[in-house]
Amino acid sequence: MSKAEQIVATAQAEVGYIETGNNHTKYQKIDQPWCGAFVNWVYSKNSIKIPDCISTVAGANAFLKAKAWQSAETATPKVGDLAFFDFPGDGVDRISHIGIVIKDNADGTVTTIEGNTSPDKKGDQRNGGEVCVKIRAYKKKNRGNLKLSLPVFIVGFGKPTITESN
Fold it and tell me: Which of 29, 56, 98, 153 fits a 20 to 30 Å CA distance from 85?
């Protein structure tokens, strides 16, 4: 199994995990929004070093500084990349969520596994309390003539160095 496949397997094994209390999880020591802690935990379990993503803004900036960032408009996402989100209208006008890309759907969307999101569209997407599989858009035109395009929440992708010797 490749390192990217190991990352996916580790994340998939957590799908359905629900926080206990308010942001209390096994992924971190303090109770705070935990999408970044989940990502850090998955990569740590696979002995892959990534920038600390507990603060999603700091994580995105670290990838940008390391020249390991692609903006959504020009992205070619790969399995194991980190998708950074800004959800308009959530009261937080900045990157505020992160997920792990498990598949590029070749239509302007990716399938991700995200910690601390909601399993449905009505719930809080950046602080929903569960590990979920989601389909998220990174291109504005991401559907064909029969389906409406999904809203684009992905700002860009952090590109971790994933080598078989990690």
Answer: 29
